[in-house]
């Protein structure tokens, strides 16, 4: 098993929907602030965190916010060529993790931030994995879905100190954060 842990950061509604037409179906300011904080913050100021995403997730980020600042951006694509300097494009999650391992002295944490196929590979591949899930309490029309979190593979753990507790609400939408850790002995 790979030694580098992958952290999945995702928001999903009741039916595990995560997107519609390349966009989020909700607007949750506190969730976006959590996303930025958890993917940006390092305990060692000389290191950065890595965000790994598929091409469609990359393209869904407004151009003025690409690349995500303060983080090393890796995009999985076999066709994407027009990216800013210091953005890495690789063909697979395995190549992304090889790249991360080659930069191990400058990397603190690795976060997968979408899309659905990258989430699935990170969660059900051979990588140690933690899932930071924002459970959006509601039904939204979606065309992209997160795989169900299989409790024979993942265990819910107490929220670490950087993860908010309890129910939150933005724009009339209620949600809460839950964290799952992949079991080691599967």
TrEMBL record:
It catalyses: (6S)-5,6,7,8-tetrahydrofolate + NADP(+) = 7,8-dihydrofolate + NADPH + H(+). Pathway: Cofactor biosynthesis; tetrahydrofolate biosynthesis; 5,6,7,8-tetrahydrofolate from 7,8-dihydrofolate: step 1/1. CDD domains: DHFR. GO terms for molecular function: dihydrofolate reductase activity; NADP binding. It comes from the Eukaryota. Keywords: NADP, One-carbon metabolism, Oxidoreductase. Residues 5-182 form the DHFR domain. One of its GO terms (biological process) is tetrahydrofolate biosynthetic process. PROSITE patterns: DHFR_1, DHFR_2. Gene3D superfamilies: Dihydrofolate Reductase, subunit A. Pfam families: DHFR_1 (PF00186). One of its GO terms (cellular component) is mitochondrion. Its EC number is 1.5.1.3. SUPFAM superfamilies: Dihydrofolate reductase-like (SSF53597). It is an enzyme of class 1 (oxidoreductase). This is dihydrofolate reductase. It comes from Plakobranchus ocellatus.
């Amino acid at each position: 098993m790979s030694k580098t842990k992958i952290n999945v950061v995702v928001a999903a509604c009741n039916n595990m929907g995560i997107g519609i037409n390349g966009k989020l179906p909700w607007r949750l300011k506190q969730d976006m602030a959590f996303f930025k904080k958890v993917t940006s913050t390092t305990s060692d100021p000389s290191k950065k965190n890595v965000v790994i995403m598929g091409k469609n997730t990359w393209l869904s980020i407004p151009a003025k916010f690409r690349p995500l600042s303060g983080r090393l951006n890796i995009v999985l694509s076999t066709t994407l060529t027009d990216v800013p300097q210091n953005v890495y494009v690789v063909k697979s999650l395995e190549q992304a993790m090889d790249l991360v391992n080659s930069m191990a002295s400058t990397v603190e944490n690795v976060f997968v931030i979408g899309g659905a196929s990258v989430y699935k590979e990170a969660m059900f591949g051979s990588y140690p994995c933690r899932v930071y899930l924002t459970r959006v309490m509601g039904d939204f029309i979606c065309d992209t879905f997160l795989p169900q979190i299989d409790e024979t593979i993942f265990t819910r753990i107490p929220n670490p100190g950087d993860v908010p507790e309890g129910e939150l609400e933005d724009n009339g939408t209620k949600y809460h954060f839950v964290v799952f850790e992949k079991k080691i002995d599967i």
